[in-house]
Design brief:
CATH architecture of the largest domain: 3-Layer(aba) Sandwich
Radius of gyration: 23 Å
Number of helices: 14
Distance between the termini: 61 Å
Helix content: 55-70%
Shape: elongated
Largest sheet: 5 strands, parallel
CATH superfamily of the largest domain: Glucose-6-phosphate isomerase like protein, domain 1
Length: 290
């Protein structure tokens, strides 16, 4: 569905039957709970039949209730406050083995990322990284950690990599003001999406730079700026954003880039090993700590 589910419901609310209005109003008021209810449970909660719930989903243009539920879950992640996230997680995981449940969910996210990420976009992103003049990387809030990770490793391969700091909007534009058609911006954003990242990618695109967007959905606000769109699953785990799949995707991106630049990478790390050894950077195995 291209249109926001809430907008879709509000546009048609006056034309709904009595039963469909009851379902619609419950979803609008309690979307955080409705997103994880089966058709049977939602019907029982609002006092209508399961078949009425299924017909409601079809009437909105979804291919059955599971498709509506999936759309509601995806939209919900960008709307929930941190408090609501905690409440949802408590309801879902109460009485369970949290360690096993969270790790199982992360395994599933990596599997779904592998299935959904375009190989064509991935290879295009690798070529864009290799061929550009300067690489700008922007990611704020929880995405700042993986933006920093990507910046660290690309900086070991390329001489002009700039990690755009998460500061005020005016300072952000000061850092990227010289970006042009020779350059590349990599934007990383997951729900709840950062306005700063959206503005940075918009600026880069208007100045002719190539854009790689690393996000969770083609409907993400940064996806429309992408020359290469890399999708990674990042569902919520309580108030914590699960970034396991995005980090795995970035690992693959760095490895692919290093393979394409094997000679340069080898020479770089030969030099780094000499520097690290000369300046005693790392503790050697078996060496006593002092």
């Amino acid at each position: 569905m291209e249109k926001d589910l809430f907008s879709l419901i509000n546009d048609r609310l006056s034309s709904f039957s009595k039963g469909h209005k009851i379902i619609a109003n419950y979803i609008l008021d309690h979307y955080d709970k409705a997103a994880f209810m089966t058709a049977q449970k939602l019907g029982k909660t609002v006092g209508v039949s399961e078949s009425t719930v299924v017909r409601f989903a079809s009437m909105l243009g979804y291919d059955g209730y599971p498709a509506l539920q999936k759309g509601l879950q995806e939209m919900m992640r960008s709307r929930l406050t941190a408090v609501q996230r905690i409440e949802v997680t408590s309801d879902q995981m109460s009485g369970e083995d949290v360690l096993e449940r969270v790790l199982d969910q992360d395994i599933d996210r990596i599997r779904r990322t592998l299935e959904e990420t375009s190989r064509e976009d991935f290879q295009r992103a690798v070529e864009q990284i290799i061929s550009c003049n300067t690489i700008y990387i922007v990611g704020t809030r929880s995405s700042a950690s993986i933006a920093g990770f990507l910046s660290y490793y690309l900086s070991l391969i390329f001489p002009r990599v700039k990690l755009v700091p998460s500061t005020t909007t005016s300072e952000l534009f000061e850092k990227i003001m010289h970006i042009d058609e020779r350059d590349l911006m990599i934007g990383i954003s997951f729900p709840r999406y950062s306005k700063q990242t959206v503005k940075a990618l918009d600026f880069a695109k208007h100045n002719g730079a190539k854009v790689i967007a690393i996000t969770d959905s083609a409907s993400s606000p940064i996806a429309k700026y992408a020359d290469s769109l890399l999708l990674a699953r990042s569902d919520m785990a309580s108030f914590v954003d699960s970034l396991v799949a995005p980090l795995s995707l970035i690992n693959a991106l760095v490895v692919a880039v290093s393979i394409k630049n094997r000679d340069i990478v080898s020479k770089t790390f030969e030099r780094l090993e000499q520097v690290w050894d000369e300046y005693d950077v790392y503790t050697k195995s078996g060496e006593d700590e002092k």
